Amino acid sequence: MEKRLEYISWEEYFMGVAFLSAQRSKDPTTQVGACIVKDNKVIGMGYNGFPKGSDDDFMSWEREGDILNTKYPYVVHAELNAILNSIKSLDNSTIYVTHFPCNECSKAIIQSGISEIIYFSDKHKGSDSTKASELILKNANVSYRKYEGNKLKLEVLFKD
Ligand SMILES: O=c1[nH]c(=O)n([C@H]2C[C@H](O)[C@@H](COP(=O)(O)O)O2)cc1CO
Ligand SMILES: [Zn+2]
């Protein structure tokens, strides 16, 4: 028998895991996922959500109005969750993220030892947060690039 040819690449695999992780998010507007990889092994995963133990039904997913009644001061970003959930040293690891990280996440990425970022969407390119991220990442020698896999969709069938 010949080997199966439809297998996915490492890059497609790990970006797929990041997008799958994003599916755990309860944010009705934006679901972000992150997957940290070292030596082709997953060592951390995360998605955006309220801190552990928060009562989801008490928290608000609003985006506008009094800041204290919006999600923004409370939600933990996917990248930070992936870092905090990681199971070993992140030195020289790669983080796959569905969205280019904000400046706060970029700082955490640098401090954790992650050395490469592969992102799918940069829909906030040109924003102050993205510009600040680009500046500190370059300054800290953390490389970043867009996803280069061919797959834009992966179907996961639960079957025998
Ligand atoms: O780096 C990030 N990582 C991350 O997980 N997020 C989360 C926080 C919010 O739950 C959501 C952004 O919400 P919105 O698009 O409604 O502003 O994405 C947001 C950013 C900033 O781009
Ligand atoms: Zn962030």
UniProtKB/TrEMBL annotation:
<dbReference type="GO" id="GO:0004132">
    <property type="term" value="F:dCMP deaminase activity"/>
</dbReference>
<keyword id="KW-0862">Zinc</keyword>
<dbReference type="InterPro" id="IPR015517">
    <property type="entry name" value="dCMP_deaminase-rel"/>
</dbReference>
<dbReference type="Pfam" id="PF00383">
    <property type="entry name" value="dCMP_cyt_deam_1"/>
</dbReference>
<dbReference type="GO" id="GO:0008270">
    <property type="term" value="F:zinc ion binding"/>
</dbReference>
<dbReference type="InterPro" id="IPR016473">
    <property type="entry name" value="dCMP_deaminase"/>
</dbReference>
<keyword id="KW-0545">Nucleotide biosynthesis</keyword>
<feature type="binding site">
    <location>
        <position position="105"/>
    </location>
    <ligand>
        <name>Zn(2+)</name>
    </ligand>
</feature>
<feature type="active site" description="Proton donor">
    <location>
        <position position="79"/>
    </location>
</feature>
<comment type="similarity">
    <text>Belongs to the cytidine and deoxycytidylate deaminase family.</text>
</comment>
<protein>
    <submittedName>
        <fullName>Zinc-binding CMP/dCMP deaminase</fullName>
    </submittedName>
</protein>
<feature type="binding site">
    <location>
        <position position="102"/>
    </location>
    <ligand>
        <name>Zn(2+)</name>
    </ligand>
</feature>
<dbReference type="InterPro" id="IPR002125">
    <property type="entry name" value="CMP_dCMP_dom"/>
</dbReference>
<keyword id="KW-0378">Hydrolase</keyword>
<dbReference type="GO" id="GO:0005737">
    <property type="term" value="C:cytoplasm"/>
</dbReference>
<feature type="binding site">
    <location>
        <position position="77"/>
    </location>
    <ligand>
        <name>Zn(2+)</name>
    </ligand>
</feature>
<keyword id="KW-0479">Metal-binding</keyword>
<feature type="domain" description="CMP/dCMP-type deaminase">
    <location>
        <begin position="9"/>
        <end position="130"/>
    </location>
</feature>
<dbReference type="InterPro" id="IPR016193">
    <property type="entry name" value="Cytidine_deaminase-like"/>
</dbReference>
<dbReference type="GO" id="GO:0009165">
    <property type="term" value="P:nucleotide biosynthetic process"/>
</dbReference>
<dbReference type="InterPro" id="IPR035105">
    <property type="entry name" value="Deoxycytidylate_deaminase_dom"/>
</dbReference>
<dbReference type="InterPro" id="IPR016192">
    <property type="entry name" value="APOBEC/CMP_deaminase_Zn-bd"/>
</dbReference>
<dbReference type="GO" id="GO:0006220">
    <property type="term" value="P:pyrimidine nucleotide metabolic process"/>
</dbReference>
